Amino acid sequence: MQHAIVARIDEEEYLEGETRSSIKHEYVAGEVFAMAGGSKAHATIAGNFFAALHSHLRGKPCRAYVADMKVRVKTLSAHYYPDVVATCAPRDLAADAPAHYLEAPCLIIEVLSDSTERTDRREKLLAYQQIDSLSEYLLVDQDKREVEVHRRTPEGWLRDICGSGDAIEMNSVGLVMPIEQIYEDSGIL
């Protein structure tokens, strides 16, 4: 059995190439992976989170980003594009901070799709948990009204499943969002 030989690149080459690329790529320890596009429901759900976060964080020392902002996991030499991410870290918001990635997010939200669910639930969950500043990681189903919340506590990471009629508490940014608002206009019942 033959295996394809993949040329590894360093992090600097990846970051430079990503600024010129017409498609987005994630980077993990020298390997580069192209990203697929999402559905209307996916975009609507991510947009609903971003709209609520953007409005809620206005005038506060925090920022929310959608789709095009990478998160760097320094310990793994990895860069991922979460669907929505928020940071309150001065080092991420400083004028001289890297323009294309965050290093200290407090909240990361991934809207699950068939092509990304395994990676989001395993690889990214373990990777993101290595970011000291991260308080919450949300996995949002795009086929049914269900949000899986992974929350850092003094005892470790706790997992909670929320569904219709529930509200998602994002303590890291002080925002509570009802499930109905998250799925508004998505066509997901």
TrEMBL record:
Residues 12-161 form the Putative restriction endonuclease domain. Signal peptide: none annotated. The keyword Lipoprotein does not apply. The keyword GTP-binding does not apply. It comes from Candidatus Nitricoxidivorans perseverans. InterPro entries: Nuclease_put_TT1808, Restrct_endonuc-II-like, Uma2. One of its GO terms (molecular function) is endonuclease activity. This is Uma2 family endonuclease. Keywords: Endonuclease, Hydrolase, Nuclease. Coiled coil: none annotated.
